[in-house]
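Structure Section — protein described below
Tokens — whole-number codes for backbone shape
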Amino acid sequence: LRFRTIAPKLRPLCEQIEKRAKIKEAALLLGDCDACYFQQRRLLLGAQVSATIGRLCLQASGDFCSTARAACFYLTQICQNEYQLYQHFFTATNAGLHALLDSFSSTLYDGFRPIYIRAHDINKLVDLVYMLRVEVLGDHLDSRGKSVDGLRPVVYRMLTDVQERIAFLAQAYIRDDVAGYNPSAHALDYPDRLREDSFAAASPVRPRVAPDLEDASPLMTFKSLHPSWYAPLERALMLLSKLHTNVDPRVFEEIASETIAACADSLISASKRIARKSPLDGQLFLIKHLVTLKEQLVPFDGNFSTTEHTLDFSIFADAIRHVVANPASVFKFNRQNSLIGVVLQAVPQVETHSTDSKKRLDAEIKTAVEAFVLTVSKTITEPLVSFITRANAFLSVNKKETVSLRSQTFAAAEKLRDIVAELQRSLVDKLAPFMDKMRLYLASNATAQGLIVNLVKDDLLRNTAELRALLRREYAEQDRTMIGLPEHEALYSTLDRHMLGVEQRTAQASIESLPAIMVPDEEDELVESSTSDAGAGLSGLVESGGHPVDSDEPPSTQSMHNGSTDFVNGGTTAVSPPDATDASDSPAAALPSLRTSDAATPTKPTRPIRPMTVQEL
């Protein structure tokens, strides 16, 4: 306040000195004035600023983010006041003013650096980064212009130091709490954890199941949002979400790549331990968590690839061994001297190693899915596959001989009939439990469910198609009839039916249990039109796969029938009687038939019986 009071009296004199600054004496006088001014300001404010920053640092033991914010705002006000006060005396700034402001700002850096360097909580450091980057640098300092130029570099230094500390703690967190996670029995209790979580989520009374927090890390704590997830997966994703916008992008790429690799290794290790109790659960556990990891990485939009350069000293080691093996060559004064060979030839080679975590994750998912599909297919079609393997081996050995395959004991038609019967029983008894368990693990991922269902279906159909081709080549029609292998369409329908979920199967069973109800013919007056109108509407339609064909016969002599057989549930559909038709919604059902009389007078057809579909139910 005293400086502002005397500023109007001294400013005209200072302006005159500044105008004559080109003269040596005036320049020296101006420098003395600046030095005296800055010395007095430093004596007045230096101790006060240091004491204030020190007091704030003592309060930063708990929440150093809020104290750092208060210190930055305090120094911002100091720098702005000093800049404006200097403008009251002099018209142009010089290096002395910047030095004064830098000295005040350095107290902030010197006071707070020991605090965040010793911090071990990633959450607090992330909050500090956000505060420095958004609130201080983005909002507060940018609006003050040149008056806070001395404070801005100090805040950038603090921000860089905090980001380096976060990167260091993140690597420790990955090593100890992701890769080095030691699961408890509850952490590996799958699929019971999934059932408990689904029941708790559906129940309005019971709280959600608590996650496995007995090994919670002091480096980063958070509230679990997915109790059924394996702990390293949620920890890895939470770490990446906190680091995504709070560290340098190149540093984040390296940390993310390391995190994904460590998480994948931890999941694979856990799946092996679960597989000791149940191989199927181990495979589904790995599929569920790897697919979840891949989906959750999409928002980060990174390559997650790293490149490392190392030195290969193997050539140097070979040269040293040559010196040890030939010590006499050291005293030769020519190119055969082994020491000269070490200097000239033993140059370390630079090797480059690239790691793409995304490609590795995709490969692990593919391997896990293929293992599950193989397990399901092997369990259901093992006798069939064993027969095909044995039959192909027999045929490859007996290519030119007259011995037939069906004459062998293991390939008798009765044996194959038993194998096909066992296959059908396995489809009924074993396929649905496999699919139900798969849907329990992948309840929230319909895309993955559909993909795995299609892969299982394709593998089963491929095995049966191979057997069907073998039967057509090596067995007579009578033998194939006795063996009773379903056709492709029938087997496809059977797989579709047994691969439905529990709710879908329950709805389908309810539909099939409903009695067929004949609907009264109140609305059939439209059928009682003229004979010519009825004939014109159906004259171009015949039952050849449901495609219309041309016909020159009059409508009265045309007749459409459901005479084709349809494989449904392993049986056939009989020809429709003359007075009733079956208009089933199944894809194999034929068109309704219409029988006309010889007198070309159409009879009044009854409304076809149609079971309700799942959507209508």
